[in-house]
Design brief:
The termini are far apart. It is built from one helix and 24 strands. Strand 7 and strand 8 form a beta hairpin. It has two domains: 155 residues, Agglutinin, subunit A; 133 residues, Agglutinin, subunit A. It is 6% helix and 39% strand. The protein has a four-stranded antiparallel sheet with strand order 1-6-7-8, with no helix packed on it. A four-stranded antiparallel sheet has the order 2-3-4-5, with no helix packed on it. A four-stranded antiparallel sheet has the order 12-20-21-22, with no helix packed on it. The longest helix is centred in the first third of the chain and has 19 residues. It has 314 residues and is mainly β. The chain binds 2-acetamido-2-deoxy-beta-D-glucopyranose.
């Protein structure tokens, strides 16, 4: 259900129908760049689990282009113009001639855009995969994960979705890491980042500026130490580290997302169909000992002692 690579036969058919409808709507539009969606319109993913559109977070009146959970619109998983809001409801998302998304405000100023391709793209196509990955590609319905021009999964906000990679392709893309929101009303870049560290042993760390405040690991070949384990029958984790790239990715058979919150905590959330809300499966650091360097270089941290830090007298 949460597979990233490879489209099933059914989704190829759906994709084809979808492709035709995009072609039709693009054909009827004469403006240049081509209009894709405007504020008030929504674009639904193949799984009908995610929606792309304009939103105002919390008590804010500013408008942002983003992707959210269809069943829970308050759960924003990606924001395009997080550092440059639109101040009215006239934002429009367009597709440029060079295969790039362009977000315009009422006066047609560029608020945000994705990178241009090096050549003109005649038939740009948008795919919104069931994973929540928004992909811009060229003409063919069968955009593989290699032939896309741009994908939202390469530009994470504060949420790690199954199938989304943390890390870096050393030849091409910028590093993919999570950046917390400033507040619930403001998705602009906050104080914390959450990234894959590959120095001696791979681990995942939260930084505040250049200061590491927590870490989970190291990677033991199967999972990261210090993170509660989930049955491997439903969870597949992948850590790749070679001269071309390093990344961490997970896929899971239950609806789970990982969020970096404004306090710098990494929260693993599970969707509860019955209550129509998210439950916290775990938070990292899940106790005070998980804070990096909590007891200094030679201290021993014991969560069941007071004070929790003791000098290591060996
Ligand atoms: C559109 O954006 C530009 C550049 O940020 C800004 O100067 C202009 O005032 C904005 N227009 C509206 C209607 O907000």
């Amino acid at each position: 259900m949460y597979k990233m690579e490879g489209l099933s036969f059914l989704s190829i058919i759906r994709c084809f129908i979808f492709y035709l409808s995009i072609e039709l709507s693009l054909a009827t539009l004469t403006i240049n760049p081509r209009r894709f969606i405007g504020d008030g319109e929504k674009f639904v993913s193949l799984s009908e689990r995610f929606e792309l559109g304009f939103f105002s977070p919390g008590n804010s009146k500013s408008r942002y282009l983003g992707i959210w959970h269809k069943e829970c619109p308050g759960t924003i998983v990606w924001v395009a113009n997080r550092n440059n809001p639109i101040h009215d409801r006239h934002g429009v998302l367009c597709i440029g001639n060079y295969g790039n998304f362009i977000l315009l405000n009422r006066t047609k100023d560029i608020i945000w855009s994705s990178d241009k391709s090096s050549r003109k793209i005649k038939n740009p196509v948008v795919h919104f995969l069931e994973t929540g990955n928004l992909i811009l590609g060229e003409s063919s319905c069968l955009i593989s994960s290699k032939s896309y021009l741009w994908q939202s999964f390469d530009y994470p906000s504060d949420t790690l979705l199954p199938g989304k990679k943390l890390g870096r392709d050393l030849k091409t893309n910028p590093e993919r890491y999570l950046t917390s929101w400033k507040s619930v009303d403001d998705p602009s870049s906050g104080d914390f980042i959450f990234k894959l560290d590959i120095h001696v042993l791979p681990q995942i760390s939260v930084y505040k500026g250049s200061m590491k405040i927590s870490r989970s690991g190291p990677w033991n070949g199967v999972s990261f130490g210090g993170i509660p384990t989930i049955s491997s029958s439903i969870l597949r984790q992948d850590l790749v580290h070679n001269e071309d790239k390093f990344y961490y990715m997970f896929e899971i058979d239950i609806p789970v997302i990982i969020k970096l919150n404004q306090a710098g905590e990494m929260q693993c959330l599970i969707w509860k169909e019955k209550s129509g809300g998210w439950d916290i499966m775990y938070t990292v650091p899940f106790d005070s000992c998980g804070m990096y360097g909590k007891c200094g270089a030679n201290g021993v941290c014991s969560i069941d002692k007071t004070p929790i830090c003791m000098a290591d007298v060996g």
